[in-house]
Amino acid sequence: MNTGSQYLHNPLLSQPPYQPLPIPFFAQGQRPFLPRKLTPGSTVKNEFLGIHFYGAKRRGNACGRARIRSRVGGELAEVQGQEQKQEPLVKRAYPFHEIEPKWQEYWEKNKTFRTPDEIDTSRPKFYVLDMFPYPSGAGLHVGHPLGYTATDILARFKRMQGFNVLHPMGWDAFGLPAEQYAIETGTHPKITTLRNINRFRIQLKSLGFSYDWDREISTVEPEYYKWTQWIFLQLFKRGLAYQAEVPVNWCPALGTVLANEEVIDGVSERGGHPVIRKPMRQWMLKITEYADRLLEDLDDLEWPESVKEMQRNWIGRSEGAELKFRVVDGDKMERNLELTVFTTRPDTIFGVTYLVVAPEHPLLSAFVSEAQRGDVEEYKDIASKKSDLERTELQKEKTGVFSGSFAVNPANGEAIPIWVADYVLGSYGTGAIMAVPAHDTRDHEFALKYDIPIHWVVTPDGESSPDSKVAYSGEGIIINSSDSMSGLDINGLLSGEAASRVTEWAEKTSNGKKKVNYKLRDWLFARQRYWGEPIPIIFFDETGESVPLSETDLPLLLPELDDFTPTGTGEPPLSKAEAWVQTMDQSSGKIGRRETSTMPQWAGSCWYYLRFMDPKNSKELVSKEKEMYWGPVDVYVGGAEHAVLHLLYARFWHKVLYDIGIVSTKEPFKCVINQGIILGEVQYTAYKDADGNYVSAEAADSLGEYTQEVVTDEKVTKSGEFFVLKDNPNVRLTARAYKMSKSRGNVVNPDDVVFEYGADSLRLYEMFMGPFRDSKTWSTSGIEGVHRFLARTWRLLIGSPSPSGTFKGGTVATNVEPSLEQLRALHKCIAKVTEEIEVTRFNTGISAMMEFINAAYKWEKLPVSVAEAFVLLLAPYSPHMAEELWSRLGHSHSLAYEAFPKANPDYLKESTITLPVQINGKTRGTIQVEEGCSEEDAFRLASKDEKLSKYLDGKSIKKRIFVPGKILNVILDRQNVKVGAQ
Ligand code: ANZ
């Protein structure tokens, strides 16, 4: 999915970040790898891989600390030509560079993670999905593996629990960047897209994700977009896709229309070009018809409350009334025109002192007076350049012009002026409002500015007099609201009651009706762009008809084109493919023109989760049977930026597909999880006064003039809550993490991390950084920490390396019965890891594994059964190492489908007892032991006990008498007695 973010482009990386090496990993002599610590600015040329890697550039103030390097094009240029340094030999803590490619190859060759077409459907299913990526030229960034590792852990865990797992990956590959690149370079978007996809795939494979690659799909492939077009036809047939003349966001620089969400503060999200409003004939999808269902069905979803709330606000349901006002001219003569307003406060009808229409209101030109026409036209022109957001911002000063006409309030017959103001939007409600300055903040501000009367009709308690400086927008008791002519009297009623009374009255007297409005607009579904799905519609100019293509004619292929530049007139680039545009309608034999706009990028991502269930089906979008089994997606993980648009559009299409019997569930995604953002490494800033002396951060503001300097983290230490200079602890610094960006030079490239620490470390680190849903900062020392943990795990099972640096082939685990202590430690770990995976609290699951390894280091022997269980626990997190250890423990098959260990509650009881210890029958002390502790364990504890050890150290023991849970009596040999018993 395209988040619009710009990340690094690394044209150099055209192959996996590393390959299996035909040399022992501790080989002396020339080392083809990077040193772990780099001197800033150093250059390392890697002849072996034919790839250049460069050290972090020291930016005037940049961190000198060894960072994971970013290989920014600009940096490359800067460091090229610098002297090549001889790298010291670095030992790897464990041979990840050998085992990771080995297991990736194994999985690929054995199709370990393939979910077969025919499966045993009596078993439970688990469909876990990532928001599929937009394959940008920049390749993966470290944010991607965060979500992907989480879903991979879930997929691997559920497989081991006996679920049929669907864990697919694909590409959301239509979109603007490939087309922009085509415009700039002439490279066909298909070529760029394929190149990017290949790179993404290689990168993802290097991280050991257990995707079923046989199900890979790409939205740009005709076999896929045939079904996107098919869905469009179904929408069209049901009247849910229609054309309308709508004011659109027209971006002259991009030569295209943009959706509201692609326009930020009046400029295009991409490129920051100015955007204006312009009416155009466009394809629209009637999402508004589904507004109520989209709202109601939110309640049962296991989604973040914040996302559900954003969707509710986006849909924005408002209950109120539409009321009609007759238009009269300056002489109060009837104009035979009516303006309908939408209000959520019919109770304030007696407080209306003017009406406002939006500048784009369709009736405006019909009632504007000749005297005011010029001003109104000028005002309309200015307003057309503003975005809706700008127009409705509360803080913005209100502007408007008088239309020269008046309207009659149906409640009291008063003639009130009609104004034109851009704080009223043409696209909401009826595009006209009854303004009540006493009770609406915006109207109040407007009335004060243009000297319009203010009539108070609501009081909080029925008596207190209003503060004329502010509007009272709350509900309350109605005052000053009756009229004998209209027969309406709502004085003394509460606002809610009064609103109902006014609405009933309006309905009875044909002055209006009850109305529910939505903020949600129909979805503008056409783009004047080349790189998108063609819309399968033919136009006939003579009749003005639009005819859908027959389903059998799908896919309607996107024609090849050499010139991708937008025409600039709003005519899409596809209009240049004349032979394609001119076509014959198969059913009528008539010649027509094809639609030349394409679908927006959102289209392909609206239903891809369905295709993964049955990706090769050429007859149906998805077979009924497969959809019934796999649907809905159990867990869907992706960025919070997709809270409304993608997730709302996909829900809309899903509901349409439900209505036409293609899917069996009302909702597509049962549970949605948003992963947090990864910010760049914390940067420390020191402050200096005008003379260049360091000053404490909190004092800098009062200086008037100061300079800032980024301080490398070796020079920083913590003092209490503050970060200070190591050399001068009185100087406090500020510490801040920034969003990773090329310009800040704090982007971390996952390829570099994999190269330096291995994929298992990257996976584990990203899960260990902090709670999965929270934002967190990257830290090089953090990744070193988890890497050390993996190395410790490796050494615990394999033993220490030989002096030459090689590790033995098998493991040091022995076939002994585990002790109670060992079982306790293991089962505690199993329970915690299982529990935490289930609630996606991966970081605390990892802590439990770390605790286990610390405990296990104290054991003399490592029982095979304990080692095996632990390896299975580790498998979802760091699968390469786990597979390798599993195989070294004597297994010939992958552990991917081994049963995930189950915690035995008997070992989870935390009961310890105080056991008296006697030496030669005399109680000399006590020890704390676990209930059911063995004689061996009790004796070991006694020997380590400070008090007891002096009786036992170096003594030969005749016998031990042990009554479990009651006593340990150690009988020493006779020759010891004198010395031992004082
Ligand atoms: C009179 C009134 C009196 C209003 C009062 C509010 C307070 P929501 O809740 O967002 O639906 N409105 C209606 N159409 C509008 C448009 N196209 N552009 C800008 N504002 C518009 O808000 C509905 C209220 O927003 C409506 O109720 C209307 O102002 C205004 F004491 O009518 B009200």
Primary descriptors:
Leu_tRNA-synth_edit; leucine-tRNA ligase activity; Leu-tRNA-ligase; protein biosynthesis; alpha+beta; globular; ATP binding; 982 residues; binds ligand ANZ; 6-stranded antiparallel sheet; 7-stranded mixed sheet; Isoleucyl-tRNA Synthetase, domain 2
CATH architecture of the domain at 317-518: Alpha-Beta Complex
Strand content: 15-25%
Q: Number of helical segments? A: 29
What is the residue-averaged pLDDT? 87
The low-confidence runs, each spanning 5 or more residues with pLDDT under 50, are: 3-90, 977-982
Q: What would you give as the CATH superfamily of the domain at 317-518?
A: Valyl/Leucyl/Isoleucyl-tRNA synthetase, editing domain
User: What quaternary form is this?
Assistant: single chain
Bound molecules: ligand ANZ
Largest sheet: 7 strands, mixed
CATH class of the domain at 317-518: Alpha Beta
* CATH topology value of the domain at 317-518: Isoleucyl-tRNA Synthetase, domain 2
Helical content band: 25-40%
The total beta strand count reads 41
Q: Structural class of the helices, strands and pairings?
A: alpha+beta
Rounded to the nearest angstrom, the radius of gyration is 36 Å
Intertermini distance:
78 Å
Shape: globular
Domain Methionyl/Leucyl tRNA synthetase: 131-263
Catalytic activity: tRNA(Leu) + L-leucine + ATP = L-leucyl-tRNA(Leu) + AMP + diphosphate
Protein name: leucine--tRNA ligase
Domain Aminoacyl-tRNA synthetase class Ia: 519-680, 738-766
